[in-house]
Specification:
The protein has 140 residues and is mainly α. Helices cover 74% and strands 0% of the residues. The protein has 5 helices and no strands. The longest helix is centred in the middle third of the chain and has 31 residues. The protein starts with 12 loop residues before the first helix and ends with a helix.
């Protein structure tokens, strides 16, 4: 109760005694015990600095665990044989190259023929469509 208090406080001895008596009457012993217990609990709690230190240590532990896991993966990937993967297949022979060339040419011819048939099919009669289907089946 200082001079900055917004309430009027009496400065006489009688007034101080009356104010102390009023405080004693207003004070609930159970409430005061609860307040004291709450303040005591705050003393036991971690400070912000303690919390930040715990977070820093947890982050360092996580980083070191990640690093160790990465190193284990690196050792496993390198393996005992030192093989960096599957070997490339041997180059194609002249016969294989020629066979691939024939397959591609045939596919291109068939694609051109299909495009021509699509154009004809747009204006073809039913009998013409059936003839086109039969000719296609006989080609194979």
């Amino acid at each position: 109760r200082g001079s900055g208090c917004a309430f009027l406080h009496e400065s006489t001895a009688a007034g101080s005694a009356a104010a102390a008596a009023d405080d004693a009457e207003d004070s609930d012993p159970d409430m005061q015990r609860e307040i004291d217990a709450a303040f005591a609990g705050f003393k036991d709690r971690e400070t912000d600095a303690d919390i930040m230190e715990n977070l820093r240590r947890a982050q360092e532990d996580e980083v070191s665990a990640d690093t160790a896991a990465h190193e284990r993966r690196e050792r496993c990937d390198s393996g005992a044989s030192g093989d960096s993967g599957d070997a490339l297949p041997p180059p194609a022979s002249e016969a294989e190259i020629e066979e691939a060339r024939r397959i591609v040419q045939k596919a291109q011819r068939e694609a051109t023929h299909r495009e021509k048939m699509k154009v004809k099919a747009q204006t073809a009669s039913r009998d013409d469509l059936q003839a086109m289907i039969n000719a296609r089946l006989n080609m194979k």
